[in-house]
Fold:
Amino acid sequence: MNKKSIVAAIGLICVGIIFGAVLVSSFKAVDPGLAGNNKYVKLETQSGAMKSQVDVKGMSDAFVAIAKKVTPTVVKVNVTTSEKRGRSGFQDFFHFFGPDFKFEFPEPGPQQGAGSGVILTPDGYIITNNHVVEKADKGGIEVTLNDTRRFQARLVGTDPTTDVAVLKIDVADLPAAVLGNSDEVQVGEWVLAVGNPFEYLSSTVTAGIISYVGRGNLGIRRDEKYGIEDFIQTDAAINPGNSGGPLVNLNGQVIGINTAIATRTGSYVGYGFAIPINLAKAVAEDLINTGKVRRGYLGITIKT
Structure:
């Protein structure tokens, strides 16, 4: 190859390089991302995020203070019955949550049962569940106070429709519970349950949150045609024996009366239900003042 050929080849190479550079620079850079998406997406923290300032020590102190305030107002209700027990109260609820559930009950004869109650007034009126006392023998209800004193209790009245009952003991200067407003209860709110689970674990306090409000259509009271179900649902641990005990808020106010649990085993599995205190209070006032609940009925039957 002569000198002119070498120079010509070098020149062609240079022209090719220059042409290639110009050709590439004329195209727009391709955005990384999905095909056809010419907009660059950047995910950032959105405005409106909640700022949580939880004082764990303060909450712990609040629980301690509430327990000290409420526990003296909670009683144990001991019941003696000679009648053969049928389905009622917790038994109905267990049956509702599955036919596979088996629960053995003692043979007929004198039997002992227990639940909880809340002192409403310093002169001895106590609210509990109807299913705790409905089978009690005459003179078969005994109340044990938090200070271990025991008193024979008189049954003032019961309302199977709401599963509320009121007892009376003859003693003065009792520590009475502070009642709250259940209409203000909100899902997610911290609550404590106080009671006497399994008959022997007296003055037990558990904590949880409100899981749901206005829970109905559970079929708990299958033997009660007009049963009212408008429960506060909570995940605070509630077990048999807690029936009639209080559900309280962080102000130490009773917002519900613990009544039933969702279970296949007979013990706590995560969900408990309480009668809203506004409803329970109205029923208790009627029972104390008149011995019965005044409730209107509309005489209409709807068939489909």
Q: What stands out?
A: DSSP finds five helices and 14 strands in the chain.
